[in-house]
Amino acid sequence: MAGASNILIALAALCWGISGGIAGILLDDGWDAAVVSFYRGFVGLLFALGWLLLQRRHSGLNSKRLWFWSVVAGLGVAGNFTFYFLSIEYGNVAVAATLMYCAPVFVYLVSFALKLERPTAAKWLAIALVMVGIVLLTKLYAISASGLSLIGVGTGLLAGLSYAAFIFGFKYAAPHGSPQAVLSVAFTVLAIALLLPTDISQAVSVVSAPELPLFVALGILGAGLSFLLYVVGIKHAAPALASMVAMVEPITATLFGAAVLNESLGVIQMVGMGIILLTVTALSVSSR
């Protein structure tokens, strides 16, 4: 089961990486980040509700723990979608995806504060290396010359914080019901949360827009299919190992950005990305 779970999580991360590239195309076409986020979640909600209607037995919807952790997961995904797309809008796909994968660092810092993890010199060194990697990747030392903005960097890090929240949400909701029930509750919360900042007139115009197939593909790959694979996989996988396997996403997003969106990274930025990915992987492997 562990091997199959890792494959499912890797496939989910592959879908997320491609969806980040699709979002980049939509944002370049002038669509608002909130509208893109909303449609990604809304299509995912339709996907989950359809699955739930077909398989309603043993859903676990009478479990208070399922509802609580699914709501946490939904809020985490809402924040992740929104901040990730804002980071793409003010930066690029590769940087946004890599910053989002600083999530394990946030997990460690919270764990230190709550005394769930014992701080060690090696862990503090790893966190410091990730910070160095962020500075190199985002060129914070020359922010005006890097083509990025502090908004792009900040929202990328907030996407990582939100990512950490939905990891825990889905992990603790999964044992209390079916994947389709967990996703239905989480995506309902997500859709409501994302509807508030959305430009309704622009959201309605998507239905008749030529980019509609891209919105549908974004929702299926970025929410419906990917989270189905993820929730099934995370049920039998350790969160640390899951976050390591999910490193497929920033790599996929970077390759998509370079191949389709003509984005490029300098040598120093590539070094920064490598430091972040290697260090976060090491943190994940050594985690409890």
Unreliable stretches (pLDDT < 50, length at least 5) are none
Element pattern in H and E: HHHHHHHHHHHHH
Strand runs, count:
0
**Based on helices, strands and strand pairing, what is the structural class?**
mainly alpha
Average of pLDDT = 80
Can you tell me the overall shape?
globular
Radius of gyration: 18 Å
| Beginning-to-end CA distance, first to last residue | 19 Å
Helix percentage: over 70%
Strand content: under 5%
Q: What's the helix count? A: 13
Largest sheet: none
SSE topology sketch:
Elements: H1 2-28, H2 33-54, H3 64-90, H4 93-100, H5 103-113, H6 121-138, H7 150-173, H8 179-195, H9 200-205, H10 212-234, H11 239-245, H12 248-259, H13 267-286
Descriptive notes:
By secondary structure, the chain is an all-alpha fold. It has helices at 2-28, 33-54, 64-90, 93-100, 103-113, 121-138, 150-173, 179-195, 200-205, 212-234, 239-245, 248-259, 267-286. Helix 3 (64-90) packs antiparallel against helix 4 (93-100) and helix 8 (179-195) crosses helix 10. The longest helix is centred in the N-terminal third of the chain and has 27 residues, at 2-28.
